[in-house]
Each structure stands twice: as structure tokens, then as C-alpha cells.
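Sequence, please.
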């Protein structure tokens, strides 16, 4: 699931397209008409809630919990009832009959040990579900923010379209008054056509991002993020034990508890079993003669259960070592993610505090200067491209910040 997400959550690059503009416009109109008519806008919190209630993996985890809970009723495990019939000349030359019934029951703490083991298995299934829920929450958050990034690129495209449309009008006016050549008009028209072409491609990209989000929520409804949501992810880091560390520690400690109860169960299997029986028979064809039997099943060769108990104890050590190893991996991962997050944060701070202001000032000043005839066409284009590039970098910086923040909020948990 995670691999699918990372293969598809990619940045948008503007490019030239060979399809006729009329065909692209028609495709975009049909696509947007279908999507808009059936979309349901929801918050990130609601998207996560829906994913946790709809996701099939979590439903499978619920069934595993249910299965282990049902198995608690199998803690008491008596041997199968033995019913035996004997007929023939075992008393005299007469043909007699004998029917016997015998049942063996476990002694000691075996029933209690089985029940305790099953209770720990239920808890282990719950811990596994918690890990799956954590991964789904991370995947939904990434997909949600990816869609918002696509919307921000669309908004930038619309802003560029407005700028170049205005530029085209100015170029046409200057051409009519003889202040400039036709090259400015042709260049402006080409840029407007290019932006309109890109708009269609962005519509398709946004539809892909919507399907990615819908995949994790696992619903037939066309769910989309609330576009009023702030693009920048609201990250709050907990300097104490993170949720990932708590989930991982709980899982391995529960695994250790299972091995402990498993070892206790195998040890309990070394105790004898008591058996009670009843028989009825004929003697010289005369009936009915009855009696009772009692006996013990003594595991003289109990080395198998002893070996299994030792293997379970080794499993305890393995789980503890795995926990220690993955704690080290998690801490190193968090340090790496924290460094990357701080780098992306500083980059974003620049664009928020200075970069965007420069871009807006460049666009405003260049438009006024070009409209007043104080700036050449080539200078105007150069400044405009510089400002546009700053805005594109800001959108990408925000997207990179969001990804690093989500990764730091949800570091990958190793559970093997």
C-alpha cells in the first residue's frame, strides 16, 4: 500500500502537449463536469475517520480479534470420549457382550494456561490492528495533502493565465498604436495557449490524486479534500514518547507476553490426565453386570513439550532483541526525518517571509512599467518568468514541507 502511494504521489511539472487545444478543452469540460457533480468535500479528520471505518485491512483485523476471542472457549480441552464394544466368547463358550465408555480430563493448570494464552493472543491481534490503523492514518494524510498540492498548482495556473491574458491585451494595444512589433502579440498568445493546455493536464492529475485518496478511504463516493483547508500541514511534534514508539513497544511487549504464556502452556502439558469410565456386560449371556474404571495418563516421554517450552522462551529473547533493535532504528530515523523537516521548514520560511513578497512586487512593478512603456518586452518577460518561478518554488517548498512533516509525525514502524 505504501509503495503504491509513493509511486503515485509526485510533483507536477509543466510541459508542452501535442493534443489540439479544442480537444483538450472539451476533455477538461467533460472531466470537470463529471467530477464536480458527484464530489463530497470533507476535512482531513473526517477522511481518516472514514478510512478507519471502511478499510478492508482493518475489517480483517477485527475478524482476527473476533476469531481469537472465540477460541478462548476452547481453553478446556478434554480428550475425545472413548466408546468401545466387545463381543465374543471372552467369559465362556457363550457369546457375550461388553460396552465401555471412558473419558480423560486434564489435571493441573492446563485449562488456566490455555485461557491465559488465548487472552494474550486476543491482545496481540488488537496491537496488530493498531499498527495497521497507524499506517492507514499516515497514508490518508499524505494523499489528502497531495490533493491540496494539486489544487495549489491549479490556482497558480489560473493566476498565470490572468497575468498573461492581461499581458496579451497590453501587447495587442501596443501593437495597434505602433509601439511594438507583432512578435509580442504572438508570444503572448502562445503563452496563453500553453497555460490553457496545462490546465487540462492538471485536471487529470487532480483526478488521479482524488482516486489515490479514495483508494485509502475505500469508498465508492468521490471524496475530495475541503479546498478551504490550509495547504501547510499543521505539525506538532511530541518531544516525549511518540505514538510510533508507543505502538511498536506495545506490540513487541505483547508478543513477549504471548511467548511467556505459550511456554507455560507447554509446561502444563507435562502433567498427567485423570480418566473415568463405565462398562456394562453380559456373563454367560446373563445381564446386566456393570462397573466403573479410573486411571491416569502419565506423559512418560514429555521431552517434546519441554523442548517446545524452551523454544517459546527463546522466542521471548528474540522479541526483546527485535524491540531493542527497532527502537534504535526508530530513533535514528526520527533524527534523520527531523533534520530534513528543519531544512524544509527553513526553506518554506524564506518563501513565506520574503520570496512571495518579492514575486508579487516583481509582477506588479513589471506590469506597470511595461504598460507605461518604461520597460522593454524582453525585460518584462524576464522579470515575469522570475516571479512565476518563485511562486512555483513556493508551492513545491510547501509540498516538500508537508511530506517531511507527515513523515516525522508518522515515522515508519518496524514490526518484524
Amino acid at each position: 500500500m505504501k509503495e503504491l502511494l509513493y509511486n503515485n504521489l509526485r510533483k507536477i511539472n509543466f510541459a508542452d502537449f501535442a493534443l489540439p487545444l479544442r480537444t483538450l478543452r472539451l476533455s477538461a469540460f467533460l472531466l470537470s463536469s463529471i467530477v464536480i457533480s458527484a464530489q463530497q468535500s470533507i476535512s482531513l479528520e473526517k477522511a481518516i475517520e472514514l478510512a478507519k471505518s471502511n478499510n478492508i485491512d482493518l475489517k480483517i483485523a477485527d475478524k482476527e480479534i473476533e476469531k481469537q476471542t472465540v477460541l478462548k472457549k476452547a481453553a478446556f480441552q478434554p480428550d475425545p470420549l472413548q466408546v468401545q464394544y466387545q463381543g465374543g466368547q471372552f467369559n465362556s463358550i457363550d457369546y457375550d457382550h461388553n460396552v465401555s465408555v471412558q473419558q480423560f480430563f486434564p489435571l493441573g493448570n492446563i485449562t488456566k494456561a490455555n485461557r491465559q494464552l488465548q487472552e494474550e493472543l486476543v491482545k496481540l491481534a488488537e496491537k496488530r490492528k493498531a499498527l495497521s490503523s497507524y499506517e492507514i492514518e499516515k497514508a490518508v494524510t499524505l494523499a489528502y495533502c497531495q490533493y491540496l498540492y494539486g489544487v495549489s498548482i491549479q490556482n497558480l495556473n489560473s493566476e498565470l493565465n490572468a497575468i498573461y491574458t492581461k499581458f496579451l491585451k497590453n501587447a495587442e494595444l501596443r501593437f495597434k498604436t505602433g509601439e511594438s512589433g507583432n512578435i509580442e502579440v504572438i508570444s503572448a498568445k502562445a503563452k496563453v495557449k500553453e497555460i490553457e493546455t496545462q490546465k487540462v493536464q492538471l485536471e487529470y492529475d487532480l483526478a488521479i490524486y482524488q482516486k489515490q485518496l479514495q483508494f485509502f478511504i475505500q469508498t465508492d463516493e468521490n471524496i475530495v479534500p475541503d479546498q478551504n483547508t490550509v495547504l501547510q500541514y499543521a505539525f506538532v511534534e511530541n518531544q516525549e514518547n511518540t505514538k510510533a514508539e508507543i505502538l511498536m513497544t506495545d506490540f513487541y511487549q505483547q508478543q513477549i507476553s504471548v511467548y511467556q504464556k505459550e511456554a507455560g502452556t507447554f509446561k502444563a502439558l507435562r502433567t498427567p490426565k485423570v480418566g473415568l469410565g463405565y462398562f456394562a456386560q453380559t456373563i454367560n449371556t446373563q445381564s446386566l453386570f456393570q462397573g466403573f474404571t479410573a486411571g491416569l495418563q502419565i506423559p512418560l516421554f514429555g521431552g517434546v513439550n519441554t523442548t517446545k517450552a524452551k523454544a517459546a522462551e527463546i522466542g521471548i529473547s528474540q522479541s526483546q532483541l527485535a524491540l531493542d533493535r527497532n527502537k534504535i532504528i526508530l530513533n535514528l530515523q526520527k533524527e534523520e526525518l527531523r533534520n530534513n523537516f528543519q531544512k524544509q521548514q527553513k526553506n518554506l520560511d524564506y518563501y513565506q517571509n520574503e520570496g512571495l513578497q518579492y514575486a508579487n512586487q516583481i509582477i506588479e512593478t513589471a506590469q506597470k512599467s511595461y504598460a507605461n512603456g518604461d520597460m522593454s518586452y524582453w525585460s518584462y518577460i524576464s522579470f515575469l518568468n522570475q516571479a512565476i518561478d518563485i511562486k512555483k518554488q513556493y508551492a513545491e517548498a510547501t509540498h516538500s514541507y508537508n511530506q517531511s512533516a507527515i513523515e516525522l509525525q508518522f515515522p515508519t514502524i518496524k514490526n518484524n
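The chain has a mean pLDDT of 85.
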